[in-house]
Amino acid sequence: MTEVNYIVEALKFMVLGMGVVFLFLIVLVQLIKLQASLIQKYFPEKTPITPTMPKIGDDIEEEQRRVAAIIAAISEYSKNK
Amino acid sequence: MKIKQFFLSILFTLVTMSSISLATEETKVHHETQQEQNSQKEPYKSKTLSQLASSFWETTGINAILDTHDGEMTSDPAGEAKEHVMGAFESSLGRIIMIGIVFLLFYLAIAKGFEPLLLLPIAFGGLLANIPLAHMAGPEGMLGVIYNMGIANEFFPLLIFMGVGAMTDFGPLLANPKTALLGGAAQFGIFGSLVGAVALGFDLQDASAISIIGGADGPTSIFIANRLAPDMLGAIAVAAYSYMALVPVIQPPIMRALTTKEERQIKMGVQRKVHRLEKLFFPIVVLMLSILILPESTPLIGAFSFGNFAKESGVIDRLSDTMQNSLINIVTIFLGLGVGSKLAADKFLVLESLGIMIIGLIAFGAGTAAGVLMAKIMNKFSKEPINPLIGAAGVSAVPMAARVVSKVGAEERPGNVLLMHAMGPNVAGVIGSAVAAGVLLSIFK
Predict the structure, then answer these.
(1) A34 in contact with B, Cβ within 8 Å
(2) Which SS3 state, helix, strand or coil, does residue B85 take?
(3) Does the distance separating the beta carbons of A6 and B204 come in below 8 Å?
(4) Which residues numbered 399-438 in B keep a CB inside 8 Å of some CB on A?
(5) Any idea where the domains of chain B sit in the sequence?
(6) Could you report the average pLDDT of every consecutive run of 10 residues in chain B (445 residues)?
(7) CB–CB of A32 and B177 under 8 A?
(8) Domain boundaries in chain A?
(9) Complex-level ipTM
């Protein structure tokens, strides 16, 4: 065979090229997923739930104190009138 | 098969041998002419005013354009070996046409805002390259020096890749990794148009270099063109960059034609938060993978990974800042001017350029279409909805393609922000086209 059909060659390139690109990306996707699960397992993101819990409690007390102060101030103000 | 391989290898060795020998010869010749000039310096003779005036006329640009048979040489960064006496068309009308094209590019860059960072330097380089008599694109001209400094040896594309790596946030890809496949589908533009280019009569090596335009990646195109078809580098680079600049014009009609209105209105969920370590390890993972599968692509992916690693490491912010700002800006100026030097009439106004522009456009359109179709298929089989528009971002013009997707999405449904979802396939497209480039290089090794 001396005559080479270049279009057939190009089609072969296409099969090889798209195959390799997809192989590369599929492996990459799997590695990303694996990496994500490993990192989630061994280095979990510190969830800032615990420090916020008592803060909310503080806020309630603070709020109650503030309301009490405001009521006191208003009653004082209206008495003076 | 064997004969073809033999032929290609002979061609390749011949080209390299001749370029080496020409380079040495050229320096020799150059040396000699300089010596001659030194030894034979003629004593100054008195000239009449009319003689002075006429010799001045000879050196004006008007004369150079009007007189088509003045024996003016073309200029080429590779030196005299590649230069020839300008034809009548090249030295007159061709120049005027090219300067017209340059002004069109200025208009697109300034008034339309099409990727002005690239288009403006390229266009100005083209303007400078078409100046008669100044030989700015020659080995001693400014454009020629820039060209030899970083384009002829593939250095600038790699620096650009480093900067792009330092600018890229892989967060969206890591949050939704399967969108990476869209970046792979868009590479069909490269291989589909390869078939088209061969059908048009380009040989396999040239066709491969041209079809890489479909990856919509300027640096990769220059890198590949340099290896596979150095003579067509100019037209390929100009085509790649102009199509990158024209993403907002070329892509939306294709995207609209292939999707229904309902599909375009699909809303995508909120992306999960990505751990810092995932981002840190990602460039290393990509590099390791390319080392194992395709070392041919590691110059590109290596530079890219380095830039990204520098950014994500968080300890060398000074360096990563330089890569993504000053360095990439400097290189962009040089790259633009250097590529622009190939817009000289004698290089650009040839039939091949027309073929390259057409195939490039087809490649680009095919890439966009393949990405969109792949996204449609994925949307059918995926649990979470995928807006098919983001497939168009699989061509790697970062971040232009993603922005276009977001714009089209927002037009269809105000408030639908697809930008971050489109960035996933977009950055995967960069990796995909680098891999495709590696495959093409490995074929012609």
Answers:
(1) no
(2) strand
(3) yes
(4) 428, 431-432, 435-436, 438
(5) 142-260+271-443
(6) 58 52 49 54 84 90 82 81 82 90 92 86 93 88 92 91 93 92 93 91 91 88 90 85 86 93 89 89 94 92 96 94 95 92 87 89 92 93 90 87 92 90 92 93 89
(7) yes
(8) 1-45, 47-81
(9) 0.82
